[in-house]
Amino acid sequence: MKKTINYFPHDFNARNDIKLKKVNMQLGLEGIGLYWCIIEYLYENDGYLTLDEDINLLAYELRIEKDLIINLIENFDLFKKQKNKFYSPSVLSRLETINEKSNVNRENVLKRWKKAQENGSINEIQPNYRGNTTVLQTKYYKKEKKIKENKNKKKENKEDILTTTDNNIYSFIEENFGRLLSGIEYEKINIWLSEWDTEILKYAITIAVMNGIKNFAYIDGILKNWKGRNLKTLSEIKENSFIGLSSKNSVESKMSEEDKKLFDDLENYNWLEDEK
Predict the structure, then answer these.
(1) Distance (Å, whole) CA 25 – CA 20
(2) FRET partner for 24 with CA separation of 20 to 30 A, picked from 46, 163, 219, 256?
(3) Is residue 3 in some structural domain?
């Protein structure tokens, strides 16, 4: 079994798909859960599963009746058949896109590796082009390099601790949270952007990360606090807010009991289990 990548896109409103609604009506949540398990198996097996051996394996591993699997495959137009195999057209399409990006990334890694050899900086890039160089792997190299750069910048300027390769707020958060954003998180960021300037959002994110809390709820709490105090510009926030680039203990010493309770709750809140 070749694992191509360790995640796949899952739209947060997928449950509203008419085909999945029919599954829910006839098979209940058991059928919905089974569908997503099959999708995971397809991604792990290059997009195809056999109608005999793999279905038997699925039934055993999921502790579920084989007839239920066959019913889901054959009667809801979610999968297609090809000889003794079945597949999902959408999974194949997305795997093709992933593979195309992986091939490009593999070529880019090879070019950087050769360039590093020529420049004598061979330790900067590891020769990982022999295997499956996925999108995540190449992003990992960039993040590792960025982490080293940020450590040096932290010593020079405290407020410049968080940096990004561009001015995109999504990239800014991904690089400093050390992970990719989910669809729901993208929607949350869009809501923030409709109310706040990008520089203010970056300042709030900086505060959260410096306090060791990479949590969307915590950032949302900071923004709501500023909004409640009618602070609209970055200069107003820096001058009048107790929440700034200082140690957590220093910040808490300036909070009211009500504020402390608010931020204690936010710190312990788990935004889709994304706190790192």
Answers:
(1) 9
(2) 46
(3) no
pLDDT 10s digits, 86-129? 999 989 988 888 778 777 777 777 777 777 667 765 554 444 44
Residues 43 and 57 in one domain: yes
Residue ending a domain, among 68, 87, 106, is 87
Q: Are residues 210 and 150 in the same domain?
A: no
Q: What is the DSSP string of the chain?
A: -----S-----TTGGGSHHHHHHHHHHHHHHHHHHHHHHHHHHHTTTEEETTHHHHHHHHHHT--HHHHHHHHHHSSS-EEETTEEE-HHHHHHHHHHHHHHHHHHHHHHHHHHHHHHHT-GGGS---TTS---HHHHHHHHHHHHHHHHHHHHHH-GGGS---SSS-HHHHHHHHHTSPPPHHHHHHHHHHHTTS-HHHHHHHHHHHHHTT---HHHHHHHHHHHHHTT--SHHHHHHH-S-SSS-HHHHHHTS-HHHHHHHHHHHH--STT---
Report pTM: 0.41
Q: Is residue 253 part of a domain?
A: yes
Tokens of 233: 């510009």
- Pairwise CA distance, residues 276 & 176, whole Å: 11
251 closest CA partner among 215, 217, 213: 213
Q: How many CB atoms lie within 10 A of CB 251?
A: 19
